[in-house]
Amino acid sequence: MILADSFCQNANARSNEFSTTESDSPLIVQFASNNVNDFVDASKLVYPYADGVDLNCGCPQRWAMKDGYGCALLYKPEVVYELVKGIKNNLPTNFSISVKLRILDDLKRTVELCQQLEKSGINFLTVHGRTPSQKNSDSIDTNALKTVCESVKIPVIANGGIKTLEDADNLHNITNCRGVMAANGILVNPALFSGAKTTPMSCVKLWMDMKNRHQNKITFQCYHHHLVFMLDKVLTRQQKQVFNHLCTFKSVDEFITTNLMIPSDFNIHYNIDNFVTCDYADEITMKHSSKCRSCGRSICYCICTKYDYDLNNGSFFTSYVQNFDHLDYMDCNIFEETI
User: Fold this and answer.
1) Which residue ranges does the record assign to the DUS-like FMN-binding domain (predicted)?
2) Which of 80, 176, 239, 313 is deepest in the core (most CB within 10 A)?
3) Containing H/E element for 50?
4) Is-catalytic flag, 59?
């Protein structure tokens, strides 16, 4: 989920939040937005490099809802309609527009909302099987997801509680959905859809090699962040206490090589294209660059923010967990050792 206003305003946000390769397709970019101008302009910026955009109406975090993002839009269907129409009216028809949402307590209202979205012209719909007030430890409502799938003709992608390939197969069989989305599960185990139960060491080594090959594209914060997720089911509690506080590329690589016994000459043969250098339209970015709407609203990118994505001290995880919702959007206490 990329904040559309920050993406339009700030070059660092664009650099850190979006990257792609020459053959990375189909690619859908998900934005959080609460107004048409930001959503349309952010979508125009990524249009040359993506196949479509998705509007997040499913984030239940308090900061997002407070600022009118995510689940807050579930209660403002007229705003969602305008956001969708903004894309339909300003971008080519072959550029897809989709919406990700959560079910409401009232299943009838959920179905009506999904049918309204279908009429607005979206190409597909992703539905998370929990309400905005539910935690990720709660079970998803498969009956509600099945009802939604039966109530619309556009493809519905079911989401929620996917930790294994078996979970994905079961959800598909129960709901007859057209696809299954994994969020936390794919972060913890990027090889989930291959059937692997935990992150294979070959996957960890691949990420290390990608970092070495594309150092100008992968920051330490991004590199470490994903490894913290990937190794959650691999490292012991004591190892996490050390690993989650490492603050340099070298220390992270040495820890992995030593503790996970990955030989330095262990090579992974993979085929990945070069990263694309994105050239964003000046007429759009300049229009937003003078605005500073992030103070007190947007947590990620602003000249007054306390968070610098490029800092290498690793302290972001501790401060983020302490200050923002205690990860109420997570399935697992991935950062429990840093609190």
Assistant:
1) 1-246
2) 80
3) none
4) yes
